[in-house]
Amino acid sequence: MSSTASTPLPGRNSGAATRRTFAIARHADIVNVPKWKQKEIAALRNGVRATVYMTNGDRYIGEWQAGMKDGNGTYHYAATGAVYQGEWRQDMRSGYGTYSIPIESAPTTSDSDKSHGPLLPSLPALKKAAGSTTITSASPTTATPTKSTAATSAIKIRAAQDAAPLRKVYAGEWAGDLRHGRGTCFYDDGSMYDGMWEGDVREGWGRLHFAADKSVYEGEWHDGLRHGQGVLLLANGDRYEGTYLNDLKEGPGRFIYRLKRQCYEGEWALDMPKCGTLRDLPPLAGHEGTGPKARKWWPIPQLTLLDPNDVLAMEREAIRQERLRRVVEDNAQDFSDESGDDEEDQEGSPE
């Protein structure tokens, strides 16, 4: 008796494959998330949370998004006692916020200015590690503290830090964890800057009140220095109106002597007047005549040049050529320094 193997019908197999294809297409939007992934998503902080303690002692209270500081919140820096209160975006200070430090602390910074003292202290980098609920004492001890004593000690330390008076250092806009936009900076010597920032330095238009000599500068800034058009008003009423280059008076400018009632107008180089004209100004109201408030005269010598305009034009051209030479040399030096740094980086990088 011969046996024959049964073979499935081709139509039946093709129909099953077609049904499976339709089922996959119909449920393509359904994704089976692994359990470990579900737990990880559930562990991410979202919305407003209570105080979260970092492993380095810092603490944050505010809004979260996908496990990152995002929204409004307050961050306390344990190492310095500084406090940032304001807006956050993806774990970085972005938006409007204020940065304050304890009054008794002396800010140390690498960003300094010879004209008005140290700037904003270096802001510590924010840690993206998850916060820890374990609280330990800030000062080491020889004895092994119990859980209750360690928590009590940490609470006392935090209470003392919260009670310490703070001094506002910066209030304004931030971007990418740096001062960026319109903001006001208060320096430790009493000076104050109100204006534009870019990349954590003064950039654009702004006004700086110098506490040392009570003078005020309002004008353009570049890379943290006075650069461009500006006006400097001194405490005695004298004023300078003109251009700056790398924090020094450079180019055409006008200096008005309020009490002498004289005005110098001409070229400046390296913060010094080089070539220009000095003329008398009309007396101030109430200072005419010969009374006690009468103007005190500082007579200007009579000019005896045959062609003063030609002499001034020649001197101005010489000053401009010298200025152009200095600017070209400075740019060439900066370019060579950057090229040397790039070569060192390439030599030190592994192949």
From TrEMBL:
Which keywords, in A-to-Z order, does the entry hold? Answer: Cytoplasmic vesicle, Repeat
Tell me the compartments it is located in.
Cytoplasmic vesicle, Secretory vesicle, Acrosome
| Chain positions covered by the region annotation Disordered | 131-151, 325-351
Q: Indicate where this protein is primarily found.
A: cytoplasm
The UniProt entry's GO CC annotations, sorted and at most eight, read: cytoplasmic vesicle
Question: Acidic residues bias located where?
Answer: 331-351
Could you say which residues form the signal peptide?
none
Name of protein:
MORN repeat-containing protein 3
